[in-house]
UniProtKB/TrEMBL annotation:
UniProt pathway: Protein biosynthesis; polypeptide chain elongation
Domain Elongation factor P C-terminal residue range list: 131-187
Protein's name according to its UniProt entry: Elongation factor P
Residue ranges of every copy of the Translation elongation factor P/YeiP central domain listed in the record: 69-123
Top-rank taxon: Bacteria
Family designation: Belongs to the elongation factor P family.
Length: 188
C-alpha cells in the first residue's frame, strides 16, 4: 500500500481513512485567495455505503487500499445467506442478505455480478447497469397507451415494485435500470 497526500486524490481511487475503506466519488482542488489550498472531496464508505464530504489539508496523508473485483455468478439463496460462485476458480462464497439488501431487488439465479473485496472481506456487489426482469403482477394494459402516460405500479419477479407505462402487461420482460434503485427503461 502506498502513502499518498491530498494532491494525489482522483475519482475512483480507494483509500484507508478513519479506520475504514473509502472510494473517492468526487474531488475539487480549492485555492482560496487567503490561506493554504485544500481539497474538498466526496467519499463513499465501502463497508457501510455512507457518503461523506471530507476536506483534506496539505499535510494529510493516507494509504491506498488495494481492492479486488471478481466476476461471480449468483447461484441461490440458502436461508439468510446468498451463494455466489467465482467464474474462474469455481470457489463459492456465502454473503448475508443484510450486506447485499439493495442488490437483492435485482438478482436472479445465474446472473453474473462483480464482487468487490478487500483482504478477503466482501465489500460490495456491483450489478450490471441494466437487468431483464419479468412482470409478475400489474393492472391490465390499456390499448393505445403510450410511454408518456402517467404509469402504473408493477411487481417484478424479484419482488421489486416499479412504475411502468400503462401498456405493460403481466408476463412482459422489461429492461430495468439498476443505478437509481430501479426504473423502467424499455421492454426487452
Amino acid at each position: 500500500m502506498a502513502t499518498i497526500g491530498m494532491n494525489d486524490l482522483k475519482t475512483g481511487l480507494t483509500i484507508l481513512y478513519n479506520q475504514s475503506i473509502w472510494r473517492v466519488l468526487e474531488f475539487q482542488h480549492v485555492k482560496p485567495g487567503k490561506g493554504a489550498a485544500f481539497v474538498r472531496s466526496k467519499l463513499k464508505n465501502l463497508r457501510t455505503g455512507a457518503v461523506n464530504e471530507v476536506t483534506f489539508r496539505p499535510g494529510d496523508k493516507f494509504e491506498t487500499a488495494s481492492i479486488e473485483q471478481t466476476d461471480m455468478q449468483y447461484l441461490y439463496a440458502d436461508g439468510d445467506q446468498h451463494v455466489f460462485m467465482d467464474n474462474e476458480t469455481y470457489d463459492q462464497v456465502s454473503i448475508p442478505a443484510d450486506k447485499i439488501s439493495d442488490a437483492l431487488k435485482f438478482l436472479l439465479e445465474n446472473m453474473t455480478v462483480k464482487i468487490t473485496t478487500y483482504e478477503g472481506e466482501i465489500l460490495d456487489v456491483e450489478l450490471p447497469k441494466t437487468v431483464e426482469l419479468t412482470v409478475t403482477e400489474t393492472q391490465p394494459g390499456i390499448k393505445g397507451a403510450t410511454a408518456n402516460g402517467g404509469g402504473k405500479p408493477a411487481t417484478l419477479e424479484t419482488g421489486l415494485v416499479i412504475t411502468v407505462p400503462d401498456f405493460v402487461n403481466e408476463g412482459d420482460k422489461l429492461v430495468v435500470n439498476t443505478d437509481n434503485g430501479g426504473s423502467y427503461t424499455s421492454r426487452a
